[in-house]
Each structure stands twice: as structure tokens, then as C-alpha cells.
Amino acid sequence: MGCIRPRLGYLLGLWLAAASAAYCQELPAEAPAEAEQVGPAWLEFLKGLGQTETGLEKLAVIVLIVLMAIAAYWAVMLVIRRAILRLQAQSMTAPPRVRQGSRRAVTVLGLLANIVKWVIGIGALLWALSVFNVNVTPVLAGAGIVGIAVGFGAQTLVRDTISGFFLLLEGQYVVGDYVDIGGKFGLVQAIGLRVTVLKDLDNRLHYIPNGTIATVTVYEQRFVSYVVEVPLAGPEDAHRGADVIRSVVADMVEDFPRHLPMAGTPQAHISGGGTSCVRVSLAVFPTQDWLATDEFPARVRSALAGAEIPIPDGRTIRTYPDLSHMPLSPPTEQQDDA
């Protein structure tokens, strides 16, 4: 790619020089005075590109238009890619709020790249049609009528596009968020005007039409915190049970490294009445609650039974959300009675 761009730039320069020379030869003697009255020379040059008569000149102009469109596309894409890379680099060490804003900007820039691609392509096509003396106004009018007809026949497409526009405008979720949309959980890979692309835990891509999105659950954290409480008979069983449960936690983290990113150290808690328990915190991946509610308690029961540490009758292992990781509600202002 590095050697192709200089060659294309060289060819583009040759075409510009040849076209400008041909255009200057066609100007009458009084052209300079008229050019000063009409407008800038570059604008008159662009207007003159379409005023060709022979087939060879028209072919040369078409090639020139294609090269100019490619050059414009590369220039715009280069600016957008550099902006995206800069935002991604800044968001690595930025605070959460700044990181969220950078990710939204990256999402919008990706959509802008797609829009620029279509604008340049359509503009080059209309310019090429004008070279062949095709009246563009009826073409645009016909395209508008066809667009209305297609819109009535493709209401789903229009609905998806409008929904995608408002999703991007409101910033409900951005690229890099973990979301649950219509029972599909995954990492947001891309957000377009028509579809949202999710990658699930099995590296499968789900293309969800934006018009079908009714409810979205966005996970601000990469995990959900739980506390598992294992009841035991006395202080001695609590300390022994903590050692046994510690080995169970190590096995769980080794067996499920992606689903169980973090786990705390089991702690023995002794109450005044002689009863005791072991508490351990688990941070599981969203939608993988079964690890804390089913898999971990089953392994703990089996390990305690193997170590001959009984669980008191009438009591069971409890798993509940860790409220210490929940955001606190803002304090309410109490007005003093005057």
C-alpha cells in the first residue's frame, strides 16, 4: 500500500496537468479577462472538465474523477483513523467518565466514516454522469420518487435506520459496552444506522436490527459481585472450612478464568451464640450467575463432605448480591422548618 499511493499521486498529477493544458488550449484570447469576472481559476477548471466532446477526453475525465474520489476518500479516512487511535490511546488511562465520552466519540467517528464513503461515491457518480451530458436534475427527482416508493415497501429498513440514528444521538450504549439486548448478551462490536453487532462469550456475532430493540441492559462494570455464605457448626469447623473453601475457590478460578475474573479470600465469621459461617465474595461475568448460585455451592458441599465438615441441619448455603458494590443514592436535602 505504501508504494501504490505515491504512484497514484503521480498519475493524478499527470492527469491534472494534461486536463489543465487541454482546457487552457481551448480558451479564446479574451479568456483571462472573462475568467477574472466569472470566478476563481480552480472553479472554472472543474466546470470545464465536463465540457469535453471526444470520447478519449471523456474517458480521461472519468479516470481523473475516480482518482480524485479515491484521493479524497483516503485523506478523510486517514484523518478519522488518526482521531480514533488518539481517542483510544487517551481512554486507556482516563477516568471512567472521560473514557465513556471517548468511546462515544469513536462510535460516532466510525459512523461518520461510512457516511463519507457514500457521499464521495455518490458525488463521483453524479459528476461522471454530467460528463456524458446526462441531466442530473431528473435523475435526482426520479431517485427521490423511487426512494419514496421503496420507503413504503421497506418500512422495516426505514424503522431500523431511524432507530439507529436515535441510538447514536442519545448514546444509550457505545462500542465496547457489555449489553443485554432481547436476551442476547455480548460485547458491542459495532453500531450502525441499521444494525447493532454483538459478540457473545463463544465469539459468535449477533446482528440485531435497531428497529427491534425495545429494552437494553447496559453493564457499567465487567462483573457482578456476589457473596456466598456457608453456615458451619462452630469456630473450629469455620476455620477448617475456610481452608477447604479456599481450595475450591482456586479450582473455580482455574476452571473458569473468563467467567470468574475475581474471587475474594474466604473469611471465617464467629457469632456470639456459637454458630459460625464462612463468607467469600465472587465477581462473576454478567449472565454467568449460575457459577455463584449453583456451581460454587455444589463444589463447596462436596469438598466439605470429603473433609467431614457437616453443614448444620436446617441451614443451607446462601448466595446474594454484594450490596457494597452498588451505587449509593444521592443524599436528600432536608429543609429546616422555619
Give the percentage of residues in beta strands.
Answer: 15-25%
Helix/strand-derived class? alpha+beta
Number of domains: 3
Based on DSSP secondary structure assignment, what is the total number of beta strands? Answer: 10
Computed over alpha carbons, the radius of gyration is 33 Å
- The order of strands across the largest sheet is 4-3-2-1-5
Q: How is this fold's topology laid out?
A:
Blueprint: H1 4-26, H2 31-38, H3 41-49, H4 55-91, H5 96-131, H6 136-153, H7 155-170, E1 178-181, E2 184-191, E3 195-199, E4 205-209, E5 216-219, E6 224-232, H8 235-255, E7 262-263, E8 267-270, E9 276-284, H9 290-306, E10 318-321
Antiparallel strand pairs: 1-2, 1-5, 2-3, 3-4, 6-9, 6-10, 7-9, 8-9
How would you characterize this protein structure?
The protein has 338 residues and is α+β, with helices and mostly antiparallel strands. It has three domains: 4-132; 157-219, Roll (SH3 type barrels); 224-325, Alpha-Beta Plaits. Helices cover 55% and strands 16% of the residues. The protein contains nine helices and ten strands. The strands form two sheets. The protein has a five-stranded antiparallel beta sheet with strand order 4-3-2-1-5. Strands 6, 7, 8, 9 and 10 form a five-stranded antiparallel beta sheet that branches.
